[in-house]
Amino acid sequence: MKTKKEQILNSALTLFGTHGFDATSTNKVAKAAGVSEGLIFRHFQSKKGLLNAVMASGVERAEQSYNEILSLKKPKDVLRGIIELPFSIEKKEHSYWKLLYSLKWQAGEYEDNSSAQLKKGLNKVFKDLKYKDPKAETEILLSIMDGMAMTILLRNPRNKKAILEVLLKKYKL
Amino acid sequence: MKTKKEQILNSALTLFGTHGFDATSTNKVAKAAGVSEGLIFRHFQSKKGLLNAVMASGVERAEQSYNEILSLKKPKDVLRGIIELPFSIEKKEHSYWKLLYSLKWQAGEYEDNSSAQLKKGLNKVFKDLKYKDPKAETEILLSIMDGMAMTILLRNPRNKKAILEVLLKKYKL
Amino acid sequence: MKTKKEQILNSALTLFGTHGFDATSTNKVAKAAGVSEGLIFRHFQSKKGLLNAVMASGVERAEQSYNEILSLKKPKDVLRGIIELPFSIEKKEHSYWKLLYSLKWQAGEYEDNSSAQLKKGLNKVFKDLKYKDPKAETEILLSIMDGMAMTILLRNPRNKKAILEVLLKKYKL
Amino acid sequence: MKTKKEQILNSALTLFGTHGFDATSTNKVAKAAGVSEGLIFRHFQSKKGLLNAVMASGVERAEQSYNEILSLKKPKDVLRGIIELPFSIEKKEHSYWKLLYSLKWQAGEYEDNSSAQLKKGLNKVFKDLKYKDPKAETEILLSIMDGMAMTILLRNPRNKKAILEVLLKKYKL
DNA sequence: CATGAATGAGTATTCATTCAT
DNA sequence: CATGAATGAATACTCATTCAT
Predict the structure, then answer these.
(1) Is the CB of C42 under 7 A from strand F?
(2) Which of chain A's residues 24-43 bind strand E, using a 7 Å CB cutoff?
(3) How far apart are CA A95 and CA D99, in angstroms?
(4) Confidence at residue D63, expressed as pLDDT on a 0 to 100 scale
């Protein structure tokens, strides 16, 4: 059986992800987790502390995915891996990603710097592949990834496979 | 001189856009607009009513841009116009777009269907230009647009011009 | 009929005076005053703001008494007036004085500087009356006043008259 | 090395004395004492129980001082001893006395009856010394002591020695 | 004896909304 | 049309206290 701390983290992730951080009261989190409200503060100090804990537990997994791909040897493999990333978000991870993206629009709420390494890695890939303007290409691909994530998380189109194929072809993969 | 109703709309747009809908109290909006709090409710019934009014006034301008571009005759001109769109968001419109995007991540807060026509139009363009999978191409371009908007509104990269050029070249424009 | 703001001030004075500032919740004040809790904050910003308002309304009356006495011409009249002061606290003013004295023991809660002028005045009186050590005499009389106030407010002895007489005789009045 | 129970008592005295009883949480006491919060309740049942224990340990010392002085044979020695009392409060005892006095203003918090014997003793002294109204004299001296304690604990005047001398002269000591 | 997780009632304060003027 | 006093429900957070270990 899960510890109460984990129950709180789970409930918080789901609620923050679906209704947003501001719109989710600690009271709701406590009820969803089946614990007293006070316990949240004993474990996480503040609501923002809870948010940070929720994010931290997700960031780990995300960074792992990144780094695994970035450490591949052939640049083309890296590129493919990165592009495939948004398409491989599992259902049970949706809450986490929704939360992450919604936070990006809320200034100051949460600082995300996981993309710094990703940027570096992509830049190198485009250089290795002799693209003319690697920096611009990096920004474009990062944007595509963010946009694709948005599309998949919010609109969930049926033709994801077809989309991925077309996308890969654009990068000659 | 602006009517008090307009003052409220302006202040609400700015505040909602910078601090978010939830984090902006009607009290703050009233003070920023220099009116009494009660007046907000006389004019807009509820806080959500104010949000809807704010969005409506923005949607109008947005749709106008869309439609102007979509009504161009040459498919390539349409394509170029659409792609250029995120790059041409004016500073004073940032609040509106930030608000729009942040709302997209908050289920139920606001329903955006402005993209339906855009989707249709793009689909036709890609068909006319003989792209193999127009539906997938449409989804990709919409995603690129969302992603580019995110990039520009949140990270504001310096090499916007270069990015746009590379992007246009990808579509042979 | 009294305004709600005044009702709040009255209830706060009574409750703060009898149970102390910390032990009195804004909820209790609101209920005692027959108003909503929110109104307290609309009028006084914070609980401490309420305390300040409560004290300010009392300080005025207190300083008036002081100054009236200090402005008497004959030093002996001043001395008698000051000594009689603690004995003339009216029942309906007990809450205020209890609150004032209890606050003196709570560092930082409320800054009382009303005694500065009183000190000056007494010093002059003792000089005029050729007492050997006016400064020490002043400190002693101030202490006697504080002590008498304590005695009267907390123990309320039956022989107040007799006490006053003995006290006056000590100062040859 | 001190027992944990004593550590709790010490920390409680200091904190209660400096910040007040209400403003001091059992959590703070536990942390200051370096023990678990639960232990406080094992030893003292409740927060008020802790308060009583803190006071009791102080009352003992205080009563000892009283009784020592009251048992002196010459009435004048008793009088001098009592008057000197407030001037001989040691720095490390300040917390205790501040707490005691602040509690006197909080109805019901703590019942102080230590002064009963003191009253009796003083009454006898004034009778022995043929003062005209011993009861009134007793009340006055008790008030002076309370007032002096207040002065010393809160304002800490520099001319304490001079004050004491003048005071003793008033009682022909 | 001692801990620390857990609770439930309570805290000051905020907020959207109403309404008499 | 416009105000501002007033409300009641909600909010994040605190606290004294309990209890299993």
Answers:
(1) yes
(2) 35-39, 42-43
(3) 53
(4) 84
